[in-house]
Amino acid sequence: MSESGFGQRRMGGRPMFILNEDSQRTHGRDAQSSNIAAGKAVSEAVRTTLGPRGMDKMLVSDDGDVVITNDGATILNSMDIEHPAAQMIVEVSQTQEDEVGDGTTTASVLAGELLAKAEDLLEQDVHATTIVEGYARARDIALEAIDDLSLDADIDDEILKQVAESSMTGKGTGDITTERLAEVVVNAVRHVEGDEKVERDDIRVHTQVGSSSSATELIEGIVTDDEPAHKNMPRSVEDATVLCTDGTFSVRETEIDAEYSVDNVDQLTAAMDAEESQLKELADAIADAGVDVVFSHSSIDDRTASHLAKHGILAFEDVDDGLTTSIAQATGGKRTGKPDDVDEDELGHADSIRVEKYGGEDLTFIEGGAAAKSVTLFIRGGTEHVVDELERALNDALDVVSAAVDTGSVVPGAGATEINIAGRVRDEAAGVEGRQQLAIEAFADAIEVLPRTLAENTGMDPIDALVDLRAANDDEAGRAGIISSGETGEIADPVEEGVIDPAAVKREAVESATEAATMIARIDDVIAAK
C-alpha cells in the first residue's frame, strides 16, 4: 500500500514525523509486486525480437527520429523508462552489451522470467532471502553446466564464421548475406588478433549511405570523412610518408604582448611578407623532411595550406584527437608537436592514401599502414535505417567473435545450452532440502523461457517444442535446439546446423540476469520523495 506522511512515530503519545509529509511509501507485498511487474514489462517489450524469426521494433523519439531494429540494447536504451526497477533491467542489457557485445535480449528476457517465478514463490510464502539463496545456487550450477557444454574443438575460422552468422541471424542486413558478412567479420578480427587477446578497439566501423549493402567491405586501414585542407592538393598518394601532429600551422605568436605601429604601406607590406616567409619556411621544412601527407589536429592557415599544395603535399586539418592518434599508430609514426622539426622515427608510412567522393562528400582512405593493425568495416546501404541496423549487427558480430577468440570456448546455440542447463539444475535441486529447492526448480523453469520463446517466434507450439527438446537432450548423445526452417522451426542439432554461440555470452547473461532479479526481489520498501 502507499502512504503519505511516511515516518510517523509516537513518543509520549504525540506523533513525530521523521520524513517530509509529502514523501510516499510503498511497502510489503505491494512494493514487491510493483517492482516485479515493472521488470517483467520491460522484459516482455523485447521478447518478440529473440531468435532468427524475431520481429523488429519501431522507435520514434520526441523529435520524430525513427529507429527500426530488433537489437535489445538499442530498444531498451531508447525507451523512456522511469520506474527504478524497470531501469535495473535496462542496466542488465547495458552490462551485457558492455561485457560481451551480444545477448542483451537473452539477458533481459531471462531476468523478467526469473522475476515472474520469484513472484509465484512469494505468493506461496517463500521468503525473499530463500529465493535469493536458491537462485544463487542455481546460477552456480548453470555456470558449471556452460563450462561442461563447451565444444571440444579448436576455434578455427569456420567456427568463428558460424558464431558471427548466429549473432546476425534475424537482423536486417539488406541485400548482403550473413555468410558474406561473417567472412568479413572474421577477417577483421583475425587482422587485429594479438598474442594475448583481440585488440577490439583497432576495428573501426564507418557507415556511408548511397549504395547497396553488398558493397560493404573490409578496408585494411582507416576511413575518415576529413577533407583536404586545400583544393589544389593531390587526392591520391602512393607509398606515403605520414606526419601526425598537434603543431601550429599559422604565424607563431610572441610570448609577450606587444603592439606594432605601422606608419605606411611599405611597413605593412614588409610585415605581411615576413608572415608569408615564415609560413613558407614551415611548409618547406615539412617538404624537406620527405613528408607526403599531413594529419593535423589543429587548424592549418590557408596560406600554409597553399604552400603545402605547391609541394604536392596532401594535408588534413582539425582531425579528431583520437583519430590523429589512431592514424599515427596505424602508420607506425608518432604524434609530434613540432611539424617543422621532425625526426625520421616520428614519421609513419602508408601504402596508399586516397580521397574519394561519395554522394557529394569526401572520404579519405588510409590503407596499408606500416603498423598495419587498424582495419575498418566500410558499411554501405541504400538508406540510413539500413546502414544503422547493419552497423548494429556487425558490431554484435565483431564482439562475439572477439569473445570466442579470447576465451576459446563456444557452446551450442538455438536453445540447446539453455535446455541442458535447466535439466542440470533440476537434477541438482532434488538433493537440496527445504524451500530453497523450490527456488532452484523455479530457476530451471525460468531459463527454459529462452527455448520456449524461440519456439513461439518460429511458429512452433512452445509446449510441444519443450517436450521434444527435453527428450532429445536427455538422450546420452543428444544435442538439440530450435532451428528455423521455412515458415516454422524444427528440432535439430545446432552444431550440425552451424548455430554456435560464445560461452562468454551465456555466462554473462546468466550472471547479470540473476543479479538483477535477486536485487529486485529483495526490495520490500520503496520510499519516494516528491
TrEMBL record:
Alphabetized GO MF terms: ATP binding; ATP hydrolysis activity; ATP-dependent protein folding chaperone; unfolded protein binding
Source organism superkingdom: Archaea
Identification of the protein by name: Thermosome subunit
Keywords of the record: ATP-binding, Chaperone, Nucleotide-binding
NCBIfam families: thermosome_alpha, thermosome_beta
Pfam families per UniProt: Cpn60_TCP1
Family from the record: Belongs to the TCP-1 chaperonin family.
Gene3D superfamilies assigned to the protein according to its UniProt record, in alphabetical order: GroEL (3.50.7.10), GroEL-like equatorial domain (1.10.560.10), TCP-1-like chaperonin intermediate domain (3.30.260.10)
